[in-house]
Amino acid sequence: MPETDIAVIGAGAAGRGLASLAVALGLRVTLFERGPMGGEAPDPELIQAALRAAGARAALARSAARMGIGSGDVPVDWLALRTHLAAADADAAPDSTAARFEAMGVELVRATGRFSAPDAVAAAGQEWRFRRALVATGAAPVIPSLEGLETVPYLTEETIHALEERPDHLLILGGGGFGLEMAQAFARLGTRATVIEATRIAPGADPVLAEGLARALRRDGVVLMEGREPARAERREGGVSLLLADGTRVEGSHLLLALGRAPRLAGLDLVTAGLPGPGLVVDESLRVEGSRRIWAAGGVIGHAGASDLGALARSMLFRVPGMPATPAPLRAIRTEPALVELGAPDQVEAAETLRWPLADTTRASAEGIEEGLVTLSVDRRGRLVGAGLLAPGGLEMAGMLSLALGRPVAELAAASLPQPTLSAAIARAALEHRAPSLTNPGIRWLAGIAKRLP
After folding, report:
1. Against a cut of 0.70, is the pTM above it?
2. Average pLDDT, stretch 250-257?
């Protein structure tokens, strides 16, 4: 039976990152992947990013007229757009190809890996004994138990790249991040887009931020049907029909399922590995509870793959004692404006919430930005414990807030920022924490004394 230092099951972002680092450190690494790797099939996340970028360009062109630049409709050449999507995917593919990993010294097994013992993985008729193993099999789109769905062609985030023509009317089941991102992108590219959500869009997000995002999406032409559940799907000539629980019928040319993702665990044989199952529970170091040898990362535990690499390096590769610092919870919906939330303010007692609209910044006025808000959650000691953004470029602005979590919110108020900038709204919101002190009699008395000084 061959032996390996690190067995990695799954070649997603987490698996590739860990394999690259481990082999660079001189460890023997065996990577098991049954599906396509870079260059063998389109990368869904990259395709989605390119679609969002194309939609953003179209929206900018349409809105330029209010600044006296151009006018009229913006035609979309779908064939040219598909060519761009393919080129973008090809540019990124070399970083994740099978040939690259084999050249690095990774033993690549193109087959399904499963546990055959608490310290062994079986694949392609062989077994490998490992010292440590990483489960990084990712997650798959959730397919609902909806009557009639088996008779209807549908798209998911893994197949949306296959559209040969622009949809006339895209029906989207699910108002979470992926569904809203695609609704906006396709609406900007000239497709009618309807989102059907059983609760409200961006469930779990700050309701104020979610409502602001809803207004922005409607301006782009997205139809939002909140609080509506589908009861049956039917195929019709040229498209699909959805019958909702309240009797409403919605018809479209294409159906996109955007109901979240579920961990890919089928076939791993967790029981043989000595794990309780049915899912994977990890501690702060990402080690799977019930095993001293097995870790899990990425989509299989609901994380973004790349963000787990630091914790894996510390606990799995270097075996540093103690728990690594747990990254702050992060939620991002990559629309425009983006909705980003950091930290866990709901877990802090008596937190103060500070808000400031983006419209009240010089840059927003100059660029005609209509929607946006900053929210800061502060604990009793004046420390930042959570933040929310609804802002164009919010994904980049979030870095400033991420570094400030756990620190006095006053530091944000004093931040040195280039002007004009939308981040000024962060500083202005932070200043609101100091506002009550301006009415303090003692502070006013000191100001009165200070004004007499030369």
Report:
1. yes
2. 97
